[in-house]
Amino acid sequence: MFRNILAAALAAAGIAIGAWSFMAPDRAAPVSANGMSPQEFSRESPLLLPGILATIYEAFSQTEEAEIYDRLATVAAGPALEQLYLERVGAMAGGGLNPDQEIHDVSLLGMSARRTGDMVEIAARWRVLGVVGHAEHMHMRGNAYAADLTMAPDQGAWKITGFSLTEVDRSDAGTLERNADAPPPGEDS
User: Fold this and answer.
1) Which residue in 18, 37, 143, 152 has the most C-beta neighbors within 10 A?
2) 119 alpha-carbon distance from chain centroid
3) DSSP character string of 100-165
4) Measuring CA to CA, how many Å separate 177 from each of 101, 138, 142, 160?
């Protein structure tokens, strides 16, 4: 409770927050726009944005194009939906974004939000921690991103309608080596 009040107060004051960590849900619910004004969404955005971002990564873990699109459509609309979808499908075709990835954490490192008419403009920086597995070892990834987002009500939910990635920092990546005699992850010994 105190954490929610503190985050909302900091956001309302325009103070960037750091290292609020949220576990990536199996499937985050869209943020309802019914009854939530742009001012309220702006104030609550430090608590809502990690779930929205986690939904994007959850969509990126899908391998079927229809699933990717449908899950992205719960949190993105218009040009942002098209951009995110095409980036994911393009990465699949180019061999990037391994479908065996597992996202463990989405941490909001800092953000600012301001209401602009019926929309909310957000400058955000976040970190994604996950594991990409291969037969011989597992890579631990801890990438940081920054983006300018436009959030607007669309079909009853607050969605990303504008997305401009401003920074990608992949310097916080490591490798966890698995003992060759150990069973693969998820299997009992």
Assistant:
1) 152
2) 19
3) T-EEEEEEEEEEEEEEETTEEEEEEEEEEEEEEE-SSEEEEEEEEEEEEEEEEEETTEEEEEEEEE
4) 16, 6, 16, 37
Both structure tokens of 67: 């699933």
Q: Which residues contact 89 (CB under 8 A, 6 or more apart)?
A: 65, 68
Tokens of 145: 């991103």
Judge whether 164 and 147 are in contact, CB under 8 Å.
Answer: yes
Give the N- to C-terminal CA distance of the chain in Å, as an integer: 41
pTM, full prediction: 0.71
Please give the DSSP secondary-structure letter assigned to residue 182. S
Count helices and strands in the chain by DSSP H and E runs: 4, 7
- pLDDT, tens only, 98-116: 555 677 888 899 999 999 9
Structure token digits, residue 40:
């309220």
Rounded Cα distance, 70 and 87, in Å: 15
Residue 152 pLDDT greater than 90, yes or no = yes
- For 35, which DSSP code? T
Lowest mean pLDDT among 13-22, 89-98, 119-128: 13-22
pLDDT band (50, 70, 90) for residue 129: confident
